[in-house]
Predict the structure.
Amino acid sequence: MLGRRKKEAGSQNEQPKACESKSIDPLRRLDLLDDEDVCVMLQGSKMVKVRSSRWQKDRIFRLLEDCVTVWCESSKTSHKAKRRQTSIRSCGRKVSGAGCGGNPQTQWWTLEVRDAVKLKKESYRAWLARGTPEAAEAYRQAKRMAAGVVSEAETRVWEEFGEAMEKDYRTASGKFWQTVRCLRRGKQLSANTVYSGGGELLASTGDIVGWWKEYFEDLLNPTDTPSVEEPEAEDSEVDSFITQAEVTEVVQQLLGGKAPGVDEIRPEYLKVLEGSWEFAQPVHMCFVDLEKAFDCVPHGILWEVLWEYGVRGLLLRAVWSLYNQSRSLVRIASCKTDLFPVHVRLRQGCPLSPVLFIVFMDRISRRSQGLEGVRFGDHRISSLIFADDVVLLAPSSLDLQHALGRFAAECEVAGIRVNTSKFEAMVLDRKKVACTLQVGGELLPQMEEFKYLGVLFTSEGRMDREIDRLISAAAAVMRSMYWSVVVKEELSWKAKLSIYQSIYVPTLTYGHELWVMTERIRSRIQEAEMSFLRRVVGRSLRDRVRSSVTREELGVQPLFLHIERGQLRWLGHLFRMPPGRLPGEVFWACPGRGPGEDPGHAGETMSLGWPGNASGSFRKSWRKCLGRGRKQCISLLQHTEISLTSDTWIRSYLRRADLNQDGKMSYDEVQHLLQMINIDLNEQYARTLFKKCDRSHDNRLDPVEIEEFCRELMRRPELDAVFRHYSSNGCVLSTLELRDFLGDQGEGATLGHAQKLIHTYEFNDWAQKNLFMTQNGFTMYMLSNENDVFNPDHTSVYQDMTRPLAHYYISSSHNTYLTKDQVTGESSTEPYIRALNQGCRCVELDCWDGDKGEPVIYHGHTLTSKVAFKEVIETIAQYAFKVSPYPLILSLENHCSVEQQAVMAQHLRSILGSALLSKPLSDQTLNQLPSPEELKGRMLVKARKLTGQLEKLGSSASFSSISDEEIGGSNKSPSKKESGKPVSSSKISPELSELVVYCRSVTFPGFDAASQRPTSEMSSFSENEALKQIKDSGNLFVRHNSRQLSRVYPSGQRLQSSNYDPQDMWNVGCQMVALNFQTPGEQMDLNRGRFLPNGRCGYVLKPDFLCQPNSNFNPENTGGGPGHIPTQLTIRVISAQQLPKINTDKRNSIVDPQVWVEIHGVSIDKARAKTHRINNNGFNPRWDCTLSFQLQVPELALVRFVVEDHDHTSKNDFVGQFTLPFNSLRTGYRHIHLLKADGSSLSPATLFIHVKVTRRGVPIKTVSERMGKV
């Protein structure tokens, strides 16, 4: 604690002082202390390593060891001598900088490094002792070996660090800051002596503690504090409880914009204001410092404030109870004081404290608020408060003086002390304006710049200095990592770029959302960016390699594109804010009266369009603040994803195609652009379009002409045709015409819904005001998620979740632990994370005996690696309910001994805790399985369970096999029984058996016997067994699955982790159709499509005819039976947009797309049809091809859209796909957002289709006719 309280020096109270300039010698300090305090002082001193030579360190260390020897001789007891000896040596290491080796902060220090360094030291000593050439050579070899070992260790650590950052650098902050601390290598600090208020040196720990007690007693118990009485609990009984409604009401009052919460304290809002101040009224600012703000909040006044805000009754008593009879003490090392009362201060570390302080400061702010403040439209902003960081705002010095006086007076009344010595003033204006602000008769200093919440503000009201500061900070980061990361040859480019993305880029682009991207700033950012990237590839400016070439080699986009996307996201956030939110109001409002504006209209709220000639200057200024090339920014703000599919997408390619970076494009550069965006225009048409846009006739397109070229390139004639079909004048859609269009789309055709769409997607002010939708607004709506082919109502949980568990399809994974194939693949916890994040609700754990009594998970009798069972359970506990709250089933394939089964049960109980279901929800007889809603947030174990007779036998009970595959007849690797050897009797642990409640695995006894067994029993089937049962006893299988769970798993012959067709199993109602999630393909596409609706929660309700125990449905014979609804599905594939290149190795390769539409359902419904191919056009191919399908059981059907690149010589290449249930398919004109093979987005690639469904008058074709078509 020595020297730790320097900030309190100079206070009115008499308190300990830390004299920074008087640092005494460590040995002299030892003489000042008595025997009891020497160890406390040495171990509590705040001393770190200092830079000095090896000779100086050895000399100081020897001096301290001599001191230890003298003190040990004079000590009274050996115990004290040992304590002193240890403490002094510790202090000596800190003073001299000597380390004991193996520092935990040295990430690369390993046993191998330690041995190598030790050998080097021993060789050095041997060389000094012998002086022979052999000893010298041995020392040189040991030195080279140690250097090599250290270098390899450092490289390995940086590689691991780069991989961690690459995987998820946003959450790897702990390792990042640990590395930064290692790079900084600490700072030089010194231990200072401590004096009392009277100037007396405090040598004893007891004296120091006493002085601090007096100081804190005076601080936390001021004499002018209002009495701390228990608040009255009116209209509340002692035995009553605080209801959720009370808490919700109070929270809404506190955070609903009345208190300075999130809406008023973000630094980005200050940057919005700053961008407005640049061309509006001058703003006078005063930065106010509150002294020990959290420590000075009187409890009595706090109860009054909460009462005013509506926090009353038991809720107020609950808050009061946290502070009632508070006590504190002072502790330094092992010495502490008596308890003393605390009547002020908020609790440190309590999550409620910031809210209480915000409410407390809000009353001060409101009581001190006058008519001053910076006007934005109908709002006046008088202050900005972030906790105890306060900024007062006013349009003039006089108004600011009045506001400051009132604020200081209110703070004094409330018991908050203001530190006037730290007050500073600033005026944001283009001109130099003096701010004569006085406090206590003294003129406050006027600053030219001030750093507030990490953002540097300058009096000119510009961000240039802040950007320069960030560029300098990024350069400092690069210098600190130069030798260890940037130019280190042992590190791969991939690892360096991961560190570049996680450290360098965030430092350089902090707060970039409202930067003004001038040419100077753009060039400086590019220079800073390329200085790092060039060094990564080992180049310099003298190599004369273009920046674009370096970026292409590294696969890095220009940094200013990242900045522009961030700006668009921020503007979109402001644009979509509901009315009443301060940032949105500031964004839309006119900031004061501009030049030439009528004073009578200064308070009107104006849009970004700034209509009218009177506000032309504001329009120009706003466009300047938004940066270059934002003529289409309003349309981009309507939808973040759409911004990537329109101008932003094409502009990123424009910059990359501009080879000489001169801002203009020649015809050759335009051809390069077309090649990059995957479109092969006819030579004549391309030249015609180029000449049409080249209005300057210089054979080069300037920025304006490039925009015109882009608009012509991005035209959607098919959308224009739809718009003109419904528009009476071809220019706009009226509300009635839009309603008619929505009616034809099969949506809610009401005027209210049409008006809502106009207000949401129409960005033209005139059209929105008169309730018209222009062609641009119509395009934005057609591209939005609201017009997606997938029903948006199905993106949340909409099905009844109170039905028995057997009535749902359950997303299930097979051999979840594997990352690749079934023979040599790696076992890891990562596949569990991926599966759970995809909504999987049944994961498999292959459990085997491991070393040291800990079970492991791997694919038995193969070469797959092993992962600890405990690690897997810990991972599952962390990610189980992040995506879906509904029950997770742990399918245990148990091959462990009884002892390790008990360990498994212990891990399950200790790690999963209350989430693990270990007993039935009810003691009543189980007639049907519980529902997902009843099992919400719980985990179920699926495994073998001891029966009543076996449970009596305990651990001696045995059975031949307890794995799912063996229960159902596995096709895995052959067992000992199959090879002629006896099967060893496997035993089951009672501890593990107790955890099996509703998912008890049993050998399938046949459908008749299973119908008499409890519903908690379930059976597993291999894919071949399941197909056989479907073919032979389809209807019985349906009835069986209406009351009991069934799990189907892939054949053991699928060594490459391929998958079977899950549709056949879903047709008979099998709930858990387990697939290899690590293998992408058509089967996994169907699985994702099946579980796409119902909020992707992993549970989808089966059709009613699959849930009835007496159902007559048979998927092999659907003629006129249950679920038979003849339906005609007509799909018109119109066009596609921005399909990516598939063969990136061939520069001139262009996609030749064709579209397949597939129907997956019962046998009679399975069909597929395709469009013709379009040669050499992946940008905007147009087919306008109609495909028709006849469905008999539509409730089971999945519709799959597949885009392929046609190839004459080999198999067509997969481009993208989208699969969804027929019941989630929307009719009308829709866009399909394509997905990659792994299920991730292929944005901005889309398909434009028209869907029509007819359910009457459809003749039924025979099975042979339908199968013949397939």
About this structure: Residues 1-100 form one domain.
